[in-house]
Amino acid sequence: MKKKVLLMLVLVISMVMYVGCSPAETVEEPAEDVEPQEEANADADSEPAAELEGDLVIYHAGSLSVPFGEMEAEFEEMYPNVDVLREPAGSRSCAKKISELGKEAHIMASADYTVIDNLLIPDFADFNVLFAKNEMVIAYSETSQYADEITSENWYEILLRDGVNYGHSDHNADPCGYRSLMVYQLAEDHYGIEGLEAELDAHCPEKNIRPKETDLLAMIETGTLDYFFIYRSVAVQHDLPFVELPEEINLSSVDFTDFYATATVEVAGSEPGQTITQVGKPIVYGVTIPKNTPDEALSVAFINYLLDRDKGLAIMDKNGQPVLDPLVVYGEENLNEGIAIEK
C-alpha cells in the first residue's frame, strides 16, 4: 500500500514538473489593440503637414480670385496651422509690389506669363510655370442696353451706339486691360473696318477704366456699365451673360498666334519713363516663387498643391479656366528643391 501511494506521489510530481517546463501557449492580442501599419504610415505622412505653419502670402491676378479662394480653403484644411493671405490685383501691379516696393510674397500668379518673364526674372524670380489659359469675351447684365440684340457679329456696332457704356481694366496695371486694346486692333483687321480701333478707344471714357478687371463687376451690377471686356472664366464664375468673340480676336487659340502678334500695346516698364511693348499672344497664366519668399517650404507646398491635377488644377478647370496639358516650365533647372511637377 505504501508503495502504491509513493508511486502515485512520484507520478503527480512528474506531471507538475512537465507542465511547468512546457512552453507557454502564445495568446494573440485582439487585432484592434495593435496599431495597423497603414495607420502608422498615415501618421508618418502627416508629419510634414504639422511642421508647416504661419502666413502664406499670395499675390495673384484678379481673375484668379474665385479658384484661388477655393484653393485657400482646401489648403488650410490640409495644413491647419497655415493662414493663406491672398492679395488680388492686376498682374503687373502684383509683380511691381515685389520688384519695386520690395514686398515679400510666397507665391506670385499672373494672368500673363510674360509679366513674370519681363518684371521678375532674373532678379526677383528664377522660374515660370505656365499652367492655365483663358479667352476674352464681352460680359453684360440682363438690364444692359441692347442685351437682346448683341451678338458675336454685331458687338462693335452695339458698343458704339449713343448712350452705351462699356469699359475695361487699366492696361498699365492689368493684362486684361492691354488685351482689351489688342481686341480693338485685331477686330479692325479681322472685320476690315478702317478706324474701328480708334472709335472703340475713343468711345470708352477714362472713368470706365479701372485698375483690375474684377473692379468692373460692381459697375455692371449697379448699371453704371452696360458691357465690359473680361476673361471668359470671370463671366462664368459670376454667372454673367457674355458675348463670345471670334477666335481670330479673342486671344485663345494657338492657331492664330501669328495674327495675334500683329497687335501691340505700350505699357509702363519697371523704371520711370521706361515702356514695354506687349505683343498679342494666346492668354496663358504663369506662377512663380519670388526669391524673397519668407518661407520656402510653404511656397513649395503651395506650388505642389496648385500644380496637382487632382487638387489645384482640378479647381482651375472646374471654374472655367482650362489647364495646360502638358504644363510648360521655363527655368526648370532653377526650380526650388522639393517642387514636383507632373507635366
From TrEMBL:
Domain of life from the UniProt record: Bacteria
Name used for this protein in its record: Tungstate/molybdate binding protein
UniProt keyword Signal present: yes
Statement: the UniProt record of this protein carries the keyword Transport: no
Signal peptide limits: 1-24
Species whose genome carries this gene: Dethiosulfatibacter aminovorans DSM 17477
InterPro entries tied to this protein: ModA/WtpA
Region (Disordered), start-end ranges: 27-47
